[in-house]
Automatic annotation (TrEMBL):
Segments annotated as ANK repeats: 853-885, 886-918, 919-951, 985-1017, 1018-1050, 1051-1083, 1084-1116
Gene3D superfamilies: Ankyrin repeat-containing domain, Nucleoside phosphorylase domain, P-loop containing nucleotide triphosphate hydrolases
GO biological process entries: nucleoside metabolic process
PROSITE patterns, A to Z: ANK_REP_REGION (PS50297), ANK_REPEAT (PS50088)
Gene Ontology terms for molecular function: catalytic activity
Alphabetized UniProt keyword annotations: ANK repeat, Coiled coil, Repeat
Protein name: Ankyrin
Taxonomic superkingdom: Eukaryota
SUPFAM superfamilies xref list: Ankyrin repeat, P-loop containing nucleoside triphosphate hydrolases, Purine and uridine phosphorylases
Species assigned in the record: Fusarium redolens
Keyword Translocase (UniProt): no
SMART domains in UniProt: ANK (SM00248)
All copies of domain GPI inositol-deacylase winged helix, residue ranges: 615-695
InterPro entries named in the record: Ankyrin_rpt, Ankyrin_rpt-contain_sf, GPIID_WHD, NLR-like, NPHP3-like_N, Nucleoside_phosphorylase_sf, P-loop_NTPase
Length: 1257
């Protein structure tokens, strides 16, 4: 047995995967020393590398005592006082550059500088010479180790070189923990020459933390900057690149490469030389720093995981809005709200709602921010009171979906306790694999469970009146909030304008109107900054006069007081100022007599008068800014707005010298335009300003759309784009993914929206000479200045294809976007509905010219819905039945886009309604889908054939039934469609009705005598479809009409199996009651019980067992129900099956590692423990499996159980004769280090450790 003083090399790893690689490269494994320092809680591996005794320490992932990572180094030096050098070995992120061709699987070595590091520097230099002469030999070393340890091959083998992708710095990572969604293209990948010799190269240089930038080769977080004066060699295998992209695929291989080099360097150092190095314990300070940094790494990794899950859950961040609104709160105000008995009662009692309506401009949003601030101060994070808040906004009305808002509430509650609930983690893992997001029901379920964590949950919702249901939102946020209140007694604080539809919903709850008090407004005025007005600043008497007048004239509106104060800044004499104050008081008096008088509108009128009285430059800038803010299709970022105003006709590019400072632009607008810190966009100061300009923008900016149109065209026509983008279409993704604040800031907006502004331009056309052939246009053509600019723009093909490609990339039209997609000026004009310029474009373009997908201008206009454009094109002899690449005509485009008037027009102009596209669809197939019933009736009126099957065997009536188009399928029945008919796929109307959960139609079809047991091409029946859809009522109806429950589909499952697999307990019970045979096996030999076990449906497993299910059946692949339950990780199912008895042999096979199912799926029993099986279940497993003497593999489940803190099974292990000492090649305690120990808490296994040590492990 070795002595602690025998060990001279300390090998430190931060991650378990690094520790496994290090252990694999030991020449010989040694037993643990007989003793080590008292209270040393470290986990070690012991061995020899050539003549040196090496101790490997892996930093703990959990918490054990105080600062476990710091103790690694402390205890290492205490227990092994003779250690002379340290090796910090693991993985890191590479920093490739033109100078350094660093690739995944390479090794970066950073040697210490100065101090007592001569031995290491000498060894590195010597080894480098050997490598230059004979090659580095890493690959052969790794191959040898993997051959000796085949179990490591899957995780530690080298991945294919094709997975080593270095993206361009400008190409940002997509969401998720892998790069599955980051599709490599020639434009976003840096191409590198294949290596001729070795796969992995070794680089020497700086390994740095993120704040070191000079010639860095590798970034990591454990020891950057700690090598000076300390003989520690840092060796990093490159597992990913230090960019936004993530790649865990190479971690194992990179760890192996680093460990191989570490072994080489250790083997090169002679024993006698090492004895001359300073002992590690003599330089404890540096060691402690390493350990502390590694602890930070561990903590950072946990934070990154939590951040990743929460970001996936919801990207909404109302925190910035809270900070922004809170800065507007004048301390000392709103005490009447915070001290009111209504508010105090809302805080104290669970399940309270406080509704706070208010007039526009009263300060509801600032009041909300004060409430949130009060709550967070009363109940700081980590308490039993949960807090979440939502700021509804008219500017985000199309993005604030109900599901997203509920997800944001859940996210905030998780952040409040700094913990992710297990059920949310499970959903994250499940959805991450599929690249999907949480569904509404899943969010509500997790949200309700999270409510139970807190004594009370306070949800604050501001400006509920500004929330408008997006077109694709199936839910209403007010309904959901009240539902959560009723079910979980959530406390809601809600503000809104006086909107009857909202106020009526809260009429039975406490209410506290928000109206700025005179004292609050006086306090606000007292703290107003008059430094810009020397007239007021130097006259305290005027300040008091202003306070007296405005506090009364503001009518409880902070916004109005703000406007009044701003307007006084321009006054130059006391009389001008007092006259203004009297005007404000007159308005207040008028409001008293006329409640319809709009004081805010008067204030906005005054602001516009102030703007128009300013000098020409300021006035022009203000009108430009307000035109963009009022007419833009979306809010602009600051740089976008600056570029939009700066660009001029025939300009080469827009650079910083052309941009007007944003502060000057805002100042020109006299406070009516602001920057939202939350969204970093430019917007109007208040939603009331939005309402004001919605009614009056035509008055103030009569040529706003024309101005925006010309500026967009000017920007797209910059010479920069022609010089920098020789192949515009192929660069579309790269352009689109650029940061919106870079030097092509407005490009994205202009490419998407220039046509919309042109179409809505207000310029009056002027007469010019005819353009084009005489048979195209005999009348004089009139073009405005904007139209002429459009023609100039469309004369350049590169500009057309670049702008169009950006647009199509954004809307993701799969029928248009392609790597070589091309279109012409006429297609572009038709796409945007630019009727005025289309005739002039026909000079060099034929009316029926096709884009690269063979779509004509008429097809574009029909798809976009521009009926006047369709009229125009038809009058110019456009082919009404032109076929595109998919065999679709313009009629298909209009039908699919649900443009009834265009469909009608095309039919009137002779469109063939019987055309069959290449996929077998007719226009009627598309019209049969939901929300297109009016078009379907029109097509049927015109004689459309309704018996044509598409390539999938579907006929129109099947599509109509599946999509719930009631009027369409009723019409088809009246026209003679046989209820018993089916498509060539064998799908009956009854099947579609069952799948669509259409109970009324199912009953009607059964009355007409349809064959309810008919089978489609996959042998499925209507009963199976009803089970899949989860509609119990339809299942009952079908069974009442003698549907056969035991029919099997093409793969063997019955209706009962489908219901069990869906997890529908009620339908399963119904089928069993009606005599469904649960003993039938599918083509794989699986029973209904196995389907339920794999699905993880414990309640259904109980139901099946109660009805006589046989758990002993073995499938064709050798699986039992118990094994299926373990695969499904369902604790209830496992427990039920074990309690049912008769599983002794099966459990023993699991312990022995002989289960064919587990080997097929790469699972083992300890993986079930990893999913959270309770000690009770583990105890049952052991009791059932203790008859066989466990072999080597029994170490896996037992050690994993210990690791997770299941000390209850320790006596059972001892009593069952488990060989704790010989359950692996090492002692049990050492083997414990080999299994992953992420998340282990000291409080969970301290008793286990005590017992294990006592037992001599």
């Amino acid at each position: 047995m070795s002595s602690p003083s025998d060990y001279t090399v300390g090998w430190i790893c931060a991650l378990t995967i690094e520790g496994v690689a290090a252990t694999a490269f030991l020449d010989q494994k040694l037993e643990a020393p007989a003793s080590q320092a008292k209270n040393d809680a470290n986990n070690y591996k012991y061995g020899k590398v050539k003549d040196h005794n090496v101790v490997i320490a892996v930093l703990p992932k959990g918490e054990y005592g105080n600062s476990p990572a710091t103790r690694v180094a402390n205890d290492l030096s205490r227990s092994f006082p003779n250690i002379r050098i340290g090796l910090l070995v693991g993985v890191g992120g590479g920093a490739p550059s033109p100078k350094h061709d660093i690739r995944l699987g390479d090794v970066v070595v950073s040697i210490p500088k100065g101090g007592q590091s001569g031995l290491l520097r000498t060894a590195v230099a010597s080894l480098e010479i050997d490598h230059m002469m004979d090659g580095n030999g890493l690959e052969s070393m790794i191959t040898e180790v993997l051959d000796q340890n085949p179990r490591l091959m899957e995780q530690f083998g080298r991945p294919p070189n094709s997975t080593d992708i270095l993206f361009q710095p400008t190409f940002k990572h997509s969401k998720g923990d892998s790069c599955r969604l980051c599709k490599p293209t020639p434009d976003n990948v840096i191409e590198r020459e294949p290596r001729k010799n070795e796969k992995s190269l070794i680089h020497f240089g700086t390994i740095a933390s993120a704040n070191t930038l000079n010639d860095v080769l590798c970034f990591e977080m454990e020891a950057a900057g700690l090598m000076n004066g300390f003989p520690c060699l840092v060796i990093r295998g490159i597992c990913d690149y230090s960019d936004s992209h993530k790649n865990k695929l190479w971690q194992g291989s990179a760890a192996m490469a680093a460990a191989a080099y570490a072994k080489q360097i250790t083997s090169l150092i002679r024993h006698e030389e090492l004895a001359q190095e300073t002992k590690l314990c003599e330089i404890q300070t540096q060691i402690n720093e390493i350990a502390r940094t590694a602890e930070d790494v561990r903590s950072q990794q946990e934070k990154e995981e939590q951040f990743e899950i929460l970001t996936w859950l919801s990207q909404a961040d109302f925190g910035q809005q809270q900070s922004e609104n809170l800065r507007k709160w004048q301390q000392g105000t709103l005490q009447w709200l915070l001290e009111s008995h209504q508010y105090q009662k809302w805080i104290r009692e669970k399940g309270e709602i406080l509704f706070c309506p208010g007039i526009p401009g009263a300060g509801k949003t600032v009041a909300t921010s004060a409430v949130i601030q009060d709550l967070t101060q009363r109940f700081p994070g980590g308490t039993d009171i949960g807090i979440a808040f939502i700021y509804c906004s008219y500017t985000e009305r199309n993005n604030q979906h109900t599901t997203g808002l509920l997800a944001s509430i859940l996210k905030q509650l998780c952040q409040f306790r700094n913990a992710i609930p297990d059920d949310l983690k499970e959903l994250y893992i499940e959805h991450r694999k599929q690249g999907t997001r949480l569904q509404y029901k899943q969010i509500v379920r997790v949200l309700k469970s999270q409510f139970g964590v807190y004594l009370r949950v306070m949800v604050v919702v501001d400006a509920l009146d500004e929330w408008q249901r997006p077109p694709d939102d199936a839910f209403n946020i007010l309904d959901e909030l009240l539902s959560l209140h009723n079910e979980s007694r959530i406390n809601h604080f809600v503000t809104s304008r006086f909107v009857p539809t909202i106020s009526n919903r809260f009429q039975n709850y406490p209410s506290l109107p928000i109206l700025a008090s005179q004292s609050d407004i006086s306090e606000y005025i007292s703290n107003y900054n008059w430094s810009s007005s020397s007239l007021v600043y130097e006259n305290p008497g005027l300040q008091e006069q202003i306070k007296s007048y405005i506090s009364q004239a503001s009518e409880g509106m902070f916004l109005l007081a703000q406007f009044y104060l701003r307007s006084l800044e321009d006054k130059t004499t006391p009389r001008e100022l007092t006259d203004a104050l009297k005007l404000y008081q007159d308005r207040a008096d008028r409001k008293e007599n006329d409640q319809n008088f709009d004081m805010l509108a008067e204030a906005y009128d005054e602001v516009m008068d102030r703007i128009n009285r300013r000098n020409a430059n300021f006035r022009r800038r203000a009108h430009q800014v307000l035109s963009w803010v009022c007419y833009a299709e979306r809010q602009l970022y600051v740089k976008e707005l600056q570029a939009a105003i700066a660009v001029k006709e025939n300009q080469v590019e827009v650079d910083e010298l052309d941009l007007c400072p944003i502060n000057l632009l805002l100042s020109a607008c006299c406070g009516i335009v602001v920057i939202s810190e939350a969204s970093e966009t430019v917007q109007l100061v208040h939603y009331t300003a939005q309402d004001y300009f919605l009614d009056r923008k035509g008055q103030w900016f009569p040529h706003g759309q024309s101005y925006l149109a010309k500026q967009c065209i000017n920007y797209l026509s910059l010479q920069k784009f022609q010089d920098d983008l020789p192949d515009p279409v192929n660069d579309v993704v790269q352009i689109w993914t650029k940061d919106p604040l870079d030097r092509i800031a407005l490009f994205q907006y202009a490419a998407l929206n220039w046509g919309h502004h042109v179409r809505n331009a207000e310029d009056t056309p002027k007469a010019i000479a005819p353009i084009g052939e005489t048979d195209v246009s005999r009348a004089t053509i009139t073009l405005s200045e904007v139209d002429q600019a459009v023609l100039n723009f469309l004369s350049c093909k590169d500009k057309i294809n670049l702008a169009l490609s950006i647009h199509l990339y954004t809307i993701q039209d799969s029928t248009l976007v392609g790597e070589d997609f091309k279109a012409n000026a006429l297609h572009m004009a038709a796409f945007f509905g630019l009727d005025r310029v289309i005739p002039s474009l026909l000079t060099g373009v034929k009316i029926n010219s096709q884009d690269s997908n063979r779509r004509t201008a008429l097809g574009w206009a029909s798809k976009a819905g521009w009926i006047t454009t369709v009229h125009l094109l038809l009058s110019l002899n456009a082919d009404v039945d032109a076929l595109d690449f998919y065999g679709r005509t313009p009629l298909f485009e209009a039908t699919e886009s649900n443009h009834f008037e265009i469909v009608n027009l095309l039919i009137e102009r002779g469109a063939d309604i019987h055309v069959v596209a290449f996929n077998g669809n007719t226009a009627l197939h598309y019209a049969a889908e939901s929300n297109r019933g009016k078009i379907a009736h029109l097509l049927l009126d015109k004689g459309a054939k309704f018996d044509i099957s598409n390539m999938f065997g579907q006929v129109p009536i099947n599509i109509a039934v599946r999509n719930g188009s009631r009027s369409v399928y009723n019409r088809l029945f009246k026209m003679g469609v046989n209820p018993r008919s089916c498509g060539v796929d064998g799908r009956t109307i009854l099947m579609e009705a069952a799948m669509a959960k259409n109970e009324d139609l199912v009953k009607e079809l059964l009355k007409q005598g349809v064959n309810l047991n008919s089978q489609d091409y996959q042998n499925r029946t209507a009963l199976m479809e009803a089970c899949r859809a989860g509609n119990q009522k339809i299942v009952e109806v079908l069974l009442q009409h003698d549907a056969k429950p035991d029919i099997q589909d093409c793969k063997g499952p019955t209706a009962l199996m489908k219901a069990s697999h869906q997890g529908d307990e009620s339908i399963t019970a119904l089928l069993l009651k009606k005599g469904a045979n649960q003993h039938i096996v599918d083509h794989d030999g699986s029973t209904t019980l196995m389907h339920a076990c794999e699905r993880g449906s414990g309640r259904i497993v109980r139901l099946l067992l109660q009805n006589g299910a046989d758990p002993e059946v073995v499938s064709h692949s050798g699986l039992t129900a118990l094994e299926c339950a373990i695969i499904g990780f369902d604790e209830l199912s496992i427990k039920l099956l074990l309690e049912h008895g008769g599983h002794m042999d099966v459990v023993s096979q699991l312990f022995e590692g002989e289960s064919p199912k587990l080997s097929d799926h790469g699972a083992a029993l300890f993986e079930a423990f990893e999913e959270g099986c309770s000690s009770e279940v583990l105890q049952l497993l052991m009791e059932r499996g203790q008859s066989k003497s466990p072999g080597w593999h029994n170490g896996l489940p037992f050690l994993k159980a210990l690791e997770d803190g299941h000390e209850i099974i320790i006596p059972l292990m001892r009593d069952s004769g488990v060989d704790l000492i010989n359950c692996s090649k090492e002692t049990g305690f050492n083997y414990w280090l080999e299994v992953e120990s992420c998340g282990v808490k000291a409080e969970n296994f301290v008793h286990v450790v005590t017992w294990v040590l006592f037992a001599g492990w």
